[in-house]
Amino acid sequence: MKLKNASTLAALGVLGLMAQAAHADDSTVKVGAGVDYTSGKYGTSETTDITQVPVSLGYDTGDWSLKLVVPYIRVSGPADVIPGVGPVNNGNPNGRGKGHGKGQGSAGSTSTTADTTTGSASGLGDVIASATYSAYHNDANNFGIDLTGKVKFGTADEDKGLGTGKNDYTFAVDMYKGFGQWTLFGGVSYTSLGSSQYIKLDDVFGANVGASYKLDSQSTIGAYYDYREKASSTSFSRSELTGYYSYKFASQWKAQVYATKGFTDGSPDWGVGASVVYSF
After folding, report:
1. Are 111 and 98 in contact (CB under 8 A)?
2. Would you say residue 115 has pLDDT above 50?
3. pTM (2 decimals)?
4. CATH code for the domain in which residue 72 is found
């Protein structure tokens, strides 16, 4: 069985387990959808535009939170820019826009210049499954520590340049502390990035820090900064600042909009997105 098929079956298995667990009386199930758009040159002469439409299923019970995200993705730009990784040395002969058919997608086009080859492709993105455990929480002091394990299944087509085709594994530690209407948060992470015969990647450390402010019982604003080491000797570190606004417009509905600004060639120049979640 090919790795891609095995990854898809594993992701579907996680979805099945979450659906079964949702019958527990003390649980909360969350169903969400969104859209995310980023644009940037990533150190190349051409712009890469990435649109993702993720659908998510979450399950909270006790100190545990489980989540599965299944995205549709469309990428337009150089073959050496991979979603979630950034600019790399992509030796795949069927890479996006390299004129071998597989990299063009259902409505793709290609063009070649002296220093880069570009193209468009779309399809299933990388399915992500995560589990977060509330290792410590003190309600009186509004302080907590969360531990998260995450698997990015390599379900995106590497021949279309939609992903690396390999699984990634992440472990993260996050903390938060509340001060009235304010909450400060931050964390660190370690990710083992899967390498293929065409794309060689290193394991990376990451960090984030941010703050949120509760405007009222329904609205929250916030911002956070993300950093991650470069994934290879030919890529760049990621450095991004994101601001967001969250609004609970009904007892079971919550919406969020956000905007991102990148500061290095490992990040998009800018991005925007929105999501909505229904809990029951």
Report:
1. no
2. no
3. 0.86
4. 2.40.160.40
